[in-house]
Write the structure tokens for this entry.
Amino acid sequence: MPRQARLDVPGALHHIMVRGINKTDIFKDDQDRNLFLDRLGRNVEEGKCSVYAWVLMTNHVHILFKSGKEGISGVMRKLLTWYAQYFNRRHSRTGHLFENRYKSILCDEDNYLLALVRYIHLNPIRAGIVSTIEELDRYPWSGHQTLIGKAKHPWMDIESVLSQYGGTRRSALRDYRRFMMAGAAQGTIRELTGGGLTRSQGGWSQVVAMRRRGQKEEYDQRILGGGEFVNKILKDTEDRHLRQLKHKRAGKTLQKIIEEECRRSGINPLELQGGGKRRAVSGTRSMIAKRGRDELGLSAAAIARRLGVCTSAITKAIDRREKDEES
């Protein structure tokens, strides 16, 4: 059965799992880990994402983040491509480093955020790397240490996590630690690593009970959340894809968008694609970039290649356009 397309919904909470191919180690030492985190931070900030939790294990990684307006694909592609090339070069190896496809579960933030943060940050205890929460406090390769203020990763959004507990920062930290300690002995919670009906309902017994009551629930293997949440995500995704498909079937291409916007603004396409920085040129480029993303579903990288600028320039151009439209 073919795999379903990944749900790359901008502004959604995603639980990302990356594993070494055939359980291969993807980190050999602290240099590898530090460089992975440095690149993750840069890509996350560029993509305007919010990271809530993360952990680096020997042969796999968990990241919990809310994607920016460009979605998750660009951030993860750049991160994993760069790191695989770096790792192979440094450790004199060839071939694939990661499994062919990282796993991404789109999650209901309102109902699962805190449970996922705890599950991800408790990985070192479940794996026997550390034994207690106090030891986890000193473990440098998870976001737990950053949340409690013993490490600094500016790209991690600790305030959004702590605000879930309410009260002062001090009381929020106390409640977070209590929550972590309460979960330390739970072991593996399979429903937090995937989607589908059984996971979203919290186990097969809940599904059976629901069916005995005659209840039906929409579900999707790519989504961790109840039926109402699943319906909303699928509808939003379908609507966006249908709009893009309509444009493509009508013969819309990025080149045609470029020609339309250049005619409208009186800009020479050669100046536009030559990296011109006049205000009128920048404004036209930002409109083209936004239309390319919204109407055709193109990535910032694909648009950047066509316009002869770097990917970050396109990301910033789209951001400027959206701010202008909101003001």
